[in-house]
């Protein structure tokens, strides 16, 4: 994945308006699940690409360091060769002196080449450091977005479960209202009252029957008394007076 496409992808994800996406989604929970997967996958891809970019940058920095060290080393060699040539020339050994001067020139050429390589790499290294800083910042932003997405998803799931529970309670209350248990209790109470009235009626009937039986008994007793007094009259006796 090219660095520019990585930065473009990161910028696109960071600009994503999560609330707007949720408002337009038919199923926000599914939308959030998909966004979490997209962000997770994108972060994994970006992390891999950023790691590769950082690795390339560190290699360039190492090469630059080696070029700088090589330039310094060739500089020391050039100085040593030049000093030796001066020493030999002072001693009258011109041929060997020229040989060491040539070695000094070769060392100086290599020093210049190493310095140029190091100098040419510096703008690229600086640019790559800026890119890596942007990529790291973008990754941090993506991770923050992913955390926000995860929190919103968890909140949404909790709210959905609460709403479902409330709907179940509402449906239960609604069904109770339709059944109107108070009317059922009222009918049951009316049934009990009728049964109680029936018992009272039966008790009154029973009491009436018992009273009539006692009345018959009283009438029998009165008739017996009359017969007794009649017999006494016929026997010539005086009728008994009713005792107080």
How would you explain this protein's 3D organization?
With 244 residues, the chain is an all-alpha fold. The protein has 2 domains: 176 residues, Helix Hairpins (Orthogonal Bundle), CATH 1.10.287; 56 residues. The longest helix is centred in the middle third of the chain and has 86 residues. It starts with a helix and ends in a 10-residue tail after the last helix.
Please name the defining characteristics of this protein.
mainly alpha, 5 helices, Helix Hairpins, 91% helix, 244 residues
Entry summary:
The chain has 244 residues and is mostly helical. 91% of the residues lie in helices and 0% in strands.
């Amino acid at each position: 994945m090219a660095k520019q496409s990585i930065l473009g992808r990161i910028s696109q994800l960071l600009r994503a308006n999560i609330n707007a996406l949720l408002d337009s989604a038919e199923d926000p929970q599914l939308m959030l699940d998909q966004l979490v997967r997209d962000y997770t996958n994108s972060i994994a891809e970006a992390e891999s690409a950023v790691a590769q970019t950082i690795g390339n940058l560190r290699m360039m920095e190492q090469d630059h360091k080696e070029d700088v060290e090589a330039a310094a080393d060739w500089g020391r060699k050039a100085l040593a060769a030049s000093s030796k040539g001066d020493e030999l020339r002072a001693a009258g050994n011109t041929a060997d002196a020229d040989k060491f001067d040539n070695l000094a020139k070769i060392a100086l050429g290599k020093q210049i080449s190493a310095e140029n390589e190091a100098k040419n790499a510096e703008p690229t290294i600086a640019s790559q450091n800026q890119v890596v800083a942007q990529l790291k910042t973008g990754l941090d932003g993506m991770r923050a977005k992913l955390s926000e997405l995860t929190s919103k998803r968890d909140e949404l799931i909790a709210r959905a479960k609460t709403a479902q529970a409330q709907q179940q309670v509402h449906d239960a209350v609604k069904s109770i209202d339709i059944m109107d248990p108070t009317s059922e209790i009222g009918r049951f109470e009316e049934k009990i009252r009728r049964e109680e009235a029936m018992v009272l009626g039966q008790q009154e009937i029973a009491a009436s029957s018992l009273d009539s039986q006692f009345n018959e008994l009283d009438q029998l007793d009165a008739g017996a008394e009359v017969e007794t007094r009649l017999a006494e009259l016929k026997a010539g006796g005086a009728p008994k007076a009713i005792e107080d």
